[in-house]
Design brief:
Elements: E1 3-6, E2 20-21, H1 45-48, H2 55-65, H3 77-89, E3 94-101, E4 107-113, E5 118-124, H4 132-144, H5 149-157, E6 158-163, H6 168-173, H7 194-206, E7 210-216, E8 221-223, E9 232-235, H8 247-267, E10 271-273, H9 283-289, E11 293-299, H10 309-327, H11 337-340, E12 345-348, E13 350-355, E14 358-360, E15 369-371, E16 373-380, E17 385-393, E18 400-405, E19 410-413, E20 431-435, E21 443-448
Parallel strand pairs: 1-2, 5-6, 5-7, 7-11, 9-10, 13-18, 14-19
Antiparallel strand pairs: 1-18, 3-4, 4-6, 8-12, 9-11, 13-16, 14-15, 16-17, 19-20, 20-21
Helix pairs in contact: 2-4, 2-10, 3-4, 4-10, 8-10
Bound molecules: zinc ion.
Zinc ion (ZN) binds next to loops.
Length: 453
C-alpha cells in the first residue's frame, strides 16, 4: 500500500490500490468552507466598504471577462498580444502605444485606460517566468471594455497605465532574467536595461499616485510558521533603510489591507506579508521612494492549481477592488492593521519525500539493498514534473509539500538515475520504479520525474 501525504493534511492519508494521493483538506481555495479565518478575523470587504463591489461581484465580473487562450501559464509574448490587442482595439476606452523595446527588440507596450485625475501605474512579468498577473491584466482589459457601468465611472476618476510583460525576452523563454542576464527588478538604480529604462520613463511621465508591481514568488513558500502554502503575498515597500512609514506608504498599507480582505475569500487563509527590507536596486522600493503608494502583489502556489488559474482570478479581484477603492478615494475607510497582521512569508519547503523505501542497486555486492529516503525536487513544482534527486539517506525531519510512504517497498532506479558504472548522487533525474519485490515484478508506481498523476 503506498500513500502520498500532502501537507498540511497531517491526517492519515487515503490509501488507494496502487497509488494514492491524499486530498488536501486545507488546500487553498479547495472550497470556501475550508477557509479558516486569517489575519482579518471575520472582517470582510463588505463590512468595510458596504457601498463598493463585493468579492462575489468581482468574481462574477471575472467569470465574464476571463479570456481563453492562456490556460497554460507558459505563453509567449506574441501569443499574449494576439489576445490582448483585439481587446484594446475593441473599445475606445483603451489605447495602446509602444513605449520601448526589449534587448531582443520585442515591443514594450503601455495600455492606458481612463482620463481621471488619480494616476495609477501597473506592470507585470518584469521577471519572465512570473506570468500570473499578465493573465489577470488581459481579463482586466476585457472587463474595461465591457458595458459594466462601474467602468465608465472609474474612467472618470482614474487614469490607469498598464505595462503587461515588461520582460518579454525572459517571458519568451519563461526565465526570470532578461536577455542580458540581468534581473530587471535589480536595475532600478542603474537603468542599464532597456526594460528598466522604459519602466522608469513611463513612471516619470505618469508620476503615479499609486503603483502595482505584479510578480510570482516561490511556490514552496509557507504562511508564517505553518504548513500552509502562501498563495498571495503583499507588500507596501519601504522607501528607505529604516523602513519608515510616511503618509504615502501608509496609504499603500491601507490598499494592501483592502487587497488582503478581497483575496482571502478567493484563496483562503493563505495570504502573507512579503519581507519589507529596503532594496535600493528594486523598482517597487524606488517607485515608493519616488512618491507613489506602491503595492507589490506576489502570486505564490496553490495545490491543485498548477496553471495558477485560481491565482489569476485572485489578482483580478485584487486589482478590481483596489482600483475601485482608489477611484472613490476610500482608502481611509480601512486601516493598515489587516496588512500589518498578515503572517510573514515563512520558510520554503521541499517538494517530495519518499520515505522508508529500500533502494535496490544491481551489481553493488556490498549494498544491493539499502534503506534510503529520497528527496525529489521538481523543475516544475506545481505540475510535479522534472524531478531530480535533492538528497538521499536518513531524511527524517525534512519538510516537503508531499510525502510518499514507501515503507516495505523497493525503489529500483531507472534511466539516468541508474548508477551503471557510476554512483547514486543528488542532481540525477528522479526516475525509479516502486515495487513490492526487489526484482520489480510487482510495480506499484513508475516515477518518471514525477508521479504521473
Ligand atoms: Zn518577481
Amino acid at each position: 500500500m503506498i500513500t502520498f501525504r500532502r501537507i498540511p493534511t497531517r491526517v492519515p492519508a487515503v490509501a488507494l490500490g496502487a497509488l494514492a494521493v491524499a486530498a488536501c483538506a486545507t488546500a487553498p481555495g479547495a472550497s470556501t468552507s475550508d477557509a479558516r479565518p486569517g489575519a482579518s478575523g471575520s472582517t470582510s470587504t463588505a463590512d468595510v466598504f458596504p457601498d463598493l463591489r463585493s468579492v462575489v461581484d468581482w468574481e462574477a465580473a471575472h467569470d465574464g471577462a476571463r479570456q481563453p487562450g492562456l490556460e497554460d501559464r507558459r505563453f509567449s509574448p506574441e501569443q499574449y498580444w494576439e489576445i490582448a490587442m483585439p481587446l484594446v482595439e475593441a473599445t475606445e476606452r483603451l489605447s495602446v502605444a509602444e513605449v520601448g523595446h526589449s534587448v531582443e527588440g520585442r515591443p514594450l507596450r503601455e495600455i492606458v485606460f481612463g482620463s481621471g485625475p488619480i494616476r495609477v501605474l501597473a506592470w507585470s512579468q518584469m521577471h519572465g517566468d512570473e506570468s500570473t498577473a499578465s493573465m489577470s491584466l488581459v481579463d482586466l482589459l476585457a472587463w474595461l471594455g465591457s458595458d459594466d457601468p462601474l467602468v465608465r465611472d472609474l474612467g472618470s476618476r482614474i487614469t490607469l497605465h498598464m505595462i503587461p510583460i515588461l520582460n518579454p525576452d525572459g517571458a519568451a523563454r519563461f526565465i526570470r532574467r532578461n536577455a542580458l542576464g540581468v534581473d530587471v527588478n535589480r536595475d532600478a538604480r542603474r537603468l542599464a536595461t532597456p526594460e528598466g529604462r522604459t519602466l522608469k520613463a513611463v513612471h516619470d511621465r505618469v508620476e503615479p499616485d499609486f503603483a502595482f508591481n505584479l510578480h510570482d514568488q516561490n511556490v514552496r513558500t509557507r504562511v508564517g510558521s505553518t504548513d500552509r502554502g502562501a498563495a498571495i503575498s503583499l507588500l507596501a515597500p519601504a522607501f528607505n533603510r529604516t523602513r519608515d512609514v510616511n503618509p504615502t506608504r501608509e496609504r499603500a498599507m491601507r490598499i494592501a489591507s483592502a487587497i488582503a480582505l478581497a483575496v482571502e475569500p478567493v484563496v483562503g487563509d493563505h495570504v502573507t506579508q512579503y519581507n519589507d527590507a529596503f532594496n535600493p536596486r528594486a523598482f517597487g522600493d524606488l517607485i515608493s521612494a519616488w512618491g507613489a503608494s506602491a503595492v507589490l502583489i506576489e502570486s505564490g502556489g496553490m495545490e491543485r492549481d498548477p496553471q495558477k488559474q485560481r491565482l489569476r482570478r485572485a489578482n483580478f479581484v485584487a486589482l478590481g477592488h483596489a482600483l475601485e477603492v482608489i477611484a472613490r478615494e476610500r482608502w481611509s475607510a480601512i486601516g493598515t492593521d489587516v496588512y500589518e497582521a498578515l503572517p510573514p512569508n515563512g520558510r520554503a519547503v521541499d517538494d517530495l519525500l519518499v520515505m522508508g523505501g529500500t533502494v535496490v542497486i544491481e551489481g553493488w555486492s556490498g549494498a544491493r539493498e539499502t534503506r534510503l529516503d529520497l528527496l525529489v525536487r521538481y523543475a516544475r513544482p506545481l505540475l510535479e514534473r522534472g524531478g531530480a534527486l535533492g538528497d538521499l539517506g536518513d531524511l527524517e525531519g525534512y519538510e516537503a509539500r508531499d510525502t510518499l510512504d514507501a515503507t516495505g517497498l523497493y525503489i529500483l532506479p531507472q534511466g539516468e538515475m541508474r548508477p551503471e558504472g557510476g554512483i547514486l548522487e543528488p542532481g540525477a533525474p528522479a526516475t525509479f520504479l516502486l515495487a513490492r519485490d526487489p526484482d520489480g515484478r510487482d510495480v506499484v508506481l513508475d516515477f518518471d520525474g514525477g508521479p504521473g498523476r
